[in-house]
Amino acid sequence: MDKNKEKTKRDRFVKTLHFLEPTLPKGSRILDLGTPNDMSAYLQANGYEVDNAYGEDFDLNPEIIAKEGYDAVTIFEVLEHLINPMGILQQIKAPKLYASVPLSLWFAKAYRNKNDEWDQHFHEFEDWQFDWLLKKAGWNIERNEKWTSPVKKIGFRPLLRKVTPRYYIVEASRA
């Protein structure tokens, strides 16, 4: 991975950790809805106990994550890949949810990878849409934050990426 992509990933990890730390104490048990990845390893290295859902198809089997005994569930850039994200959001048993999604950008189409049916976005949200989805699934939003995802390129779209929020993260609790 090139240095710019590594820095972007590291910045996202740091921002995510800073978002969690004020309300999720170190040592908390987290069910991360995704395969084991660099982000879950980063959270473990920073004092959290993390289990992963190992890449199950949540559209077909949302009930597989209805596991007890976790302090929080994290879903970082997963819900946009699902056809029915409400199904999984309703199945979560943990009292806290931390989720991030890419925001819909007026100057870019939704991400699509024609070579991999799983690595593409079915949804890209506006913040109000994601808030509404969480509310309908039985969650109260406690706080939220947005951040940009700049790229080191020259042009109009790279300039817009420096000032336009791309990611939206929320902390929610059961209604």
Automatic annotation (TrEMBL):
One Gene Ontology molecular-function label: methyltransferase activity
Identify one Pfam family in the record: Methyltransf_23
Q: Which GO terms describe its biological process?
A: methylation
Annotated transmembrane regions: none
Tell me the keywords, alphabetical order: Methyltransferase, Transferase
Q: InterPro entries, alphabetically? A: SAM-dependent_MTases_sf
Does the record carry Nucleotide-binding as a key word?
A: no
UniProt source species: Roseivirga spongicola
Instruction: Return the protein name.
Output: Methyltransferase
